[in-house]
Design a protein that fits this description.
Elements: E1 16-19, E2 24-28, E3 31-34, E4 40-42, H1 43-46, E5 50-54, E6 60-63, E7 72-73
Antiparallel strand pairs: 1-2, 1-5, 2-3, 3-4, 5-6, 6-7
């Protein structure tokens, strides 16, 4: 199985990202809004600091283990999915 490397353009559909500095950004297209202070940065400018990307369904879609590694796509990880309860 081939590992798929993701570019910053592949991340524009993600909901949020977390960096190695423990900063969390909410994504709005190719712009990233810092959750803590509201600063806006281009996704291209923070791409190499991204550690984890979270998709719209609250699952991890991409991960980087070290700062010098590639950002790779992750298979569906049911463990982190939000549980939906039937009413």
């Amino acid at each position: 199985m081939a590992v798929k490397r993701l570019t910053y353009l592949d991340l524009k559909d993600a909901k949020s990202i977390r960096t190695f500095n423990n900063e969390t950004y909410i994504l709005k297209g190719t712009l990233a809004v810092d959750e803590e202070n509201g600063n806006i940065e281009k996704l291209a400018d923070i791409y190499y600091r991204v550690r984890t990307a979270i998709g719209q369904d609250e699952q991890i879609i991409a991960k980087r283990k070290n700062t010098f590694d590639e950002l790779i796509q992750v298979k569906s990880n049911k463990r982190f999915a939000k549980k939906k309860f039937k009413s």
